[in-house]
RNA sequence: GGACAGGUGGCCGAGUGGUUAAAGGCAGCAGACUGUAAAUCUGCCCGCGCAAGCGUACGCUAGUUCGAAUCUAGCCCUGUCCA
């Protein structure tokens, strides 16, 4: 269908929409007024990772289309402890940790959104502010009567778990109620009219919509994004080193840049639409590049995403480092560096020290497998000693990971 | 509370006394090919040690045994059914 509102047109043409509750209704609303819309985020770690980037961009689009983004931090729900872990001993986070996490995560949002007091300025809220005050009995009275277990059992999140005969705790079961409560609360007190989220949030969103309607007759809307997978079927944002974190102190800009530079050919267009502000015509051009030409599009992708998330400077340095390292065979400023002691260092220690191997055994295997290089030359001798040198020595694991040994 | 099934390496999942650091798959790392892509093929994939080897590991604890992931007891946890 064709939309009249700038918001839905934007979301549609860039590929953010998976499901919507009432497309016409939302379209009409977005065409006539500023729509405050929110997305919820976890506060379990000091940084979000690439998996949350679609949602963050979605809030950015909302603002671009002239609406008001509301970032909901799950300070309250996190405080209860994340129940999804299979090991029960998932530790509960302290209030201080959660608050620190939220502060850290906020710095990233500030790059993507304009915060402030204006009508379309972004705001960040914390559901601990209202959930924390809520007594259990009160919660049961307020919202418990509006949920039937019959219906809750039909939601995918519950149904799948039961079908797979995996445990679902009562706490988890309650999450959907708490999340529904969030939506209602924001609708009632903040005029929020829209909740967005990943496709796995559909059930929660619908619950909030129902709750708002039943309690106060407020009409609110929901949009979900498609589940993002890479073209080869993997989850977004997993690499050798683990998650691709958005915060600089959790993942260096160069590694962040490399993540995008190494995107699958088939994902380039999709990623450009979702994660950059480039105009669609430009994206269409980049996406149509064939063969090795598409590498240029990947560089653009990496530059744009890094610029948004880490800033102009970080993107430039990362790109320059990549150019020098790969094209020039040299050393870029952003590569990891460790000290080359005056009396040299074993290759094994160097590999472990710089983080290319997690243990000495792993370093040895890397060497034995022919993946270790010193100044571009493959070394297969496990006992190899890197002699002291006046100049920087380049050390590599495979063809992509490079680092610098710098004389003290 | 009772009956039954189960808890294995990052994940899934074999293994029911030794030859098992534990099949197979996924994920991951490296090599070849290429374009810092994909697909494919090859090697690696608990830690320490140059090595022989040592240490740790199959829910927890205590046993049986020359020897246990495998047997016994107790406990904890999960699922299914019954109360």
Describe this protein's structure.
The chain has 408 residues and is an alpha/beta fold. The chain has 3 domains: 6-225, HUPs (Rossmann fold, 3-Layer(aba) Sandwich), CATH 3.40.50; 252-328, Tyrosyl-Transfer RNA Synthetase, CATH 1.10.240.10; 337-407, Structural Genomics Hypothetical 15.5 Kd Protein In mrcA-pckA Intergenic Region, Chain A. The chain is 46% helix and 14% strand. It has 18 helices and 15 strands. The chain has helices at 6-13, 23-32, 53-64, 75-80, 95-112, 128-131, 136-142, 149-152, 156-163, 170-190, 202-216, 253-261, 268-275, 280-287, 294-310, 312-327, 347-354, 360-368; strands at residues 19-20, 36-41, 68-73, 123-126, 194-198, 221-225, 238-239, 242-243, 337-340, 345-346, 372-374, 377-378, 385-386, 393-397, 401-407. The strands form 4 sheets. A 6-stranded mixed sheet has the order 1-6-5-2-3-4, with helices on both faces. It has a 5-stranded mixed sheet with strand order 9-15-14-11-12. The radius of gyration is 24 Å and the shape is elongated. It starts with 5 loop residues before the first helix and ends with a strand. The relative contact order is 0.10. Residues 82-90 have low confidence and may be disordered. The chain binds one RNA strand of 83 nucleotides through strand 7, helix 15, helix 16 and helix 18.
């Amino acid at each position: 269908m064709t939309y009249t509102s700038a918001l839905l047109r934007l979301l549609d043409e860039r590929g953010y929409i998976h499901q919507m509750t009432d497309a016409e209704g939302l379209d009409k609303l977005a065409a006539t007024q500023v729509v405050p819309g929110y997305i919820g985020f976890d506060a379990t770690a000091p940084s979000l990772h690439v998996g949350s980037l679609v949602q963050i961009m979605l809030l950015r689009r909302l603002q671009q289309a002239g609406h008001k983004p509301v970032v909901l931090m799950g300070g309250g729900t996190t405080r209860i402890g994340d129940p999804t872990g299979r090991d029960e001993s998932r530790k509960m986070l302290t209030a201080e940790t959660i608050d620190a996490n939220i502060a850290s995560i906020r710095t990233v949002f500030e790059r993507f959104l304009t915060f402030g007091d204006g009508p379309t300025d972004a705001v960040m809220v914390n559901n601990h502010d209202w959930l924390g005050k809520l007594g259990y009995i009160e919660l049961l009275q307020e919202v418990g009567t509006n949920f039937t277990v019959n219906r809750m059992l039909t939601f995918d999140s519950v149904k799948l778990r039961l079908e797979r005969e995996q445990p679902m705790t009562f706490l988890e079961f309650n999450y959907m109620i708490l999340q529904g409560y969030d939506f209602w609360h924001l609708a009632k007190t903040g005029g929020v009219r829209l909740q967005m989220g990943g496709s796995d949030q559909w059930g929660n969103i619908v619950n909030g919509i129902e709750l708002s309607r039943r309690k106060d007759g407020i009409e609110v809307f929901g949009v979900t994004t498609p589940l993002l997978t890479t073209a080869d079927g993997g989850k977004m944002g997993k690499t050798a080193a683990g998650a691709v974190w958005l915060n600089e102190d959790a993942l260096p800009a160069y590694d962040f840049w490399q993540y995008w530079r190494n995107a699958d050919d088939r994902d380039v267009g999709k990623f450009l639409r979702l994660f950059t502000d480039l105009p669609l015509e430009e994206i269409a051009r980049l996406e149509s590049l064939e063969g090795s030409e598409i590498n240029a599009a990947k560089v653009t992708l990496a530059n744009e995403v890094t610029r948004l998330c880490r800033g102009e400077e970080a993107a430039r340095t990362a790109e320059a480092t990549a150019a020098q390292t790969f094209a020039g065979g040299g050393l870029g400023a952003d590569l990891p560096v460790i000290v080359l002691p005056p009396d040299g260092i074993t290759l094994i220690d160097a590999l472990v020290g710089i983080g290319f191997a997690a243990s000495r055994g792993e370093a040895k295997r890397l060497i034995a497998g022919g993946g270790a290089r010193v100044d571009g030359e493959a070394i297969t001798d496990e006992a190899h000693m890197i002699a002291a040198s006046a100049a920087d020595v380049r050390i590599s694991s495979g063809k992509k990971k490079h680092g610098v040994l710098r004389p003290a």
